[in-house]
Amino acid sequence: MRYRLIALDVDGTLLNDRHELVPETVDTIREVVAQGAEIVLCTGRAPLSTIPLMEQMGLTGYVISHNGAATVDAATREIVHQYQMDKRSLEPYISYCRENGVHFDVNTAFELYVDQLEGLKLEVQSMYEAFLMEPLQLPQWADWSEPLVKFTAFGSMQRLDEVYRDWGRWEQPFNMLRSGDFFIDLMHKHASKGEALHQLAQQRGIAPDEIMAIGNYYNDLSMLTYAGKGIAMANSPEEVKLAADEVTLSNNEQGVRHALIKYCLN
């Protein structure tokens, strides 16, 4: 089967644990593209921390960012589609985070805002640096008018387990998911990597069985099950592996390269 569209998660999948693109993997991706496949990066990251990876690989096309909440043309930086969140429905989550000392950020398609820009903890600053993001000061909530696409809580795994349990008891107006051990993301109810991939594929005239998706975490489940070939990384949780069609090597063993050679180049 020749796959026309290949969706790649970024952190824990395309990148190793040092957040690096491995040259051999990049060479394989370029070879797959030269044979006619289209690469789309599908990530919880924002476009501004994803597009540089496309540029490093010498690729054009699209990035599905914020876990499917915003799809952007990597060359023109045009927003192709975005799911706007309801501002009022976010207010209880913001209050919870403020009252319980949970760090959070609020995202438009291209910008990231934090509640207290001054005095950010070192681990928070390091996290934003690793994801190539420069936070801005959140303005007065009553004055906010920009389209919101994602709300993220950040903290230790144990702390976020507690937050996830608490929010899970609420009537949920959003798509709430763990996008990593240290993150909980809220998006529009219909926003997901799988739905965004579905929309992009329809626009490109590509059927699901012509799509391969590779990912490693719970936020990848929707695209792994939508694609004709869903491949989980060896470093994935067991539930993600069980939902996939195949399991490749880990992100530290160039699992993406291994899968592309096996299913796209042989």
From TrEMBL:
Record bears the keyword Oxidoreductase: no
Domain of life assignment: Bacteria
Keyword Transit peptide found: no
InterPro entries: Cof (IPR000150), HAD-like_sf (IPR036412), HAD-SF_hydro_IIB (IPR006379), HAD_sf (IPR023214)
Pfam families attached to this UniProt entry: Hydrolase_3
The EC number(s) this enzyme carries: 3.1.3.-
GO function terms (MF aspect): hydrolase activity
CDD domains to which the protein is assigned, alphabetical: HAD_Pase
EC primary class: hydrolase
Keywords linked to the UniProt accession: Hydrolase
Listed PANTHER family: HAD SUPERFAMILY HYDROLASE-LIKE, TYPE 3, PHOSPHOSERINE PHOSPHATASE
Name by which UniProt lists this protein: Cof-type HAD-IIB family hydrolase
Organism of derivation: Paenibacillus terreus
Organism phylogeny: Bacteria, Bacillati, Bacillota, Bacilli, Bacillales
